[in-house]
Amino acid sequence: MADLRSTFAGIKSPNPFWLASAPPTDKAYNVIRAFKAGWGGVVWKTLGEDGPPIVNVSGPRYGAIHSADRRVIGFNNIELITDRPLQVNLDEIKQVKRDWPDRAMVVSLMVPCTEDAWKAILKRVEETECDGVELNFGCPHGMSERGMGAAVGQVPEYIEMVTRWCKQHTRMPVIVKLTPNVSSILRPAEAAKRGGADAVSLINTVNSMMGVDIDAMTPWPPVGGMGTHGGMCGPVVKPIALNMVADIARNAETAGLPISAIGGIEKWRDAVEYMALGAGNVQVCTAAMIYGFKIVGEMIAGLDAWMDEKGHRSIEDFRGLAAPKVTDWQHLNLDYVVKAQIDQELCISCGRCHIACEDTSHQAITSMVDGKRKFEVIEEECVGCNLCAVVCPVENCITMVPLADGELDKRTGIRVGGHRTWMEHPNNPMAKATRKAKYEKA
Ligand SMILES: Cc1cc2nc3c(=O)[nH]c(=O)nc-3n(C[C@H](O)[C@H](O)[C@H](O)COP(=O)(O)O)c2cc1C
Ligand code: SF4
Ligand code: SF4
Questions:
Q1: Catalytic residue ranges
Q2: Whose Cα sits closest to atom 8 in ligand 3?
């Protein structure tokens, strides 16, 4: 059995699966049941400063994108931070941590952008003996209009300043939670590191509007006839988050900064993908809201079985293994050639591949052969784009087969085997300079 224990930014947990800061972590009743189900840790629902409690809307606050079989693949909310009194939350956090000492208890925080406000909340949170804090610089709705959340996370100078205050005023590990609503995730991550962050976590939700009710002519979710943008999460945001995690993991200035990956994680495999790109652990929100706390059982069992199968004894054995394979487009091998291959035994002759290829400009799949309905790849036209494999309803019916070294690409008339990137390609006007520089260096 593999060792699933995790140490993230100095915080220990029996497995790398934490619940993200959100409604499932907003009270002791929930967190205790989550721990009973097996979650390795939680980030408590974001606390704000003392004072009149936060007021949420008392109407629809969620929206969703459903798949054809009505699974929730995109989720959206317009909730604010916790609407329970600060002291109630702090007392519960303290008690739960005492009762569950082996689980990670991180507290998410969001207060106005003044040193005094951060100093005051950190002192009170420290008294709970929790394991660390997460600075919520990501919430894109409601709180951001009040100068908090994403309003801080979109300005690297603010991130650096607040992180530095927090590191000065607490001995606890500080995790900075980033917003994806920026043009590059690197500037905020670098700012967090400069400010002294022990780790970053990402992503928070993506600015979004889930739809428009075209009878009432109001955005969804409607609150008294009006609507507002919300934050989107769930499986549809995973590709955004994966890319951002990879960006941070391979950026020289943020190298080595621990990353807690969040976004669309439903299964153990999602977690492995994030960790393969360099994440130290993962956090889950939407999947726990939709399917309940017990999904962690499948995540733990699946990760354990996969690690055993691959011979990985600990998470560190495979963490980051895929990161060196991420590169920029200009460094891809333009001489690499694949062709689609259709397994005629599996083909149900639906014709989807033909339509997609025909109308996407390649015209590389037949619909008729010798007067009969038949779908065959025309190698002379196939550019290897894999659209046909994407649209085919039969798994593994269409595979992409690489041409071997020395084999003739019937489309271009060129023999396969070279390795030219755009940096060296003869069609690139700048390539001459690149080749010259390479030559001079050698
Ligand atoms: C209803 C709801 C409330 C949330 N509240 C918070 C919050 O208080 N603080 C926070 O940092 N993130 C909050 N989030 C964002 C999640 O922690 C997480 O970053 C995001 O949902 C992406 O993960 P997922 O795809 O697993 O849901 C909330 C998300 C949802 C859906
Ligand atoms: S890989 Fe692309 S070009 Fe080739 S057959 Fe499929 S859709 Fe057409
Ligand atoms: S999409 Fe797949 S199943 Fe349908 S015709 Fe093409 S190869 Fe056959």
A1: 139
A2: 347
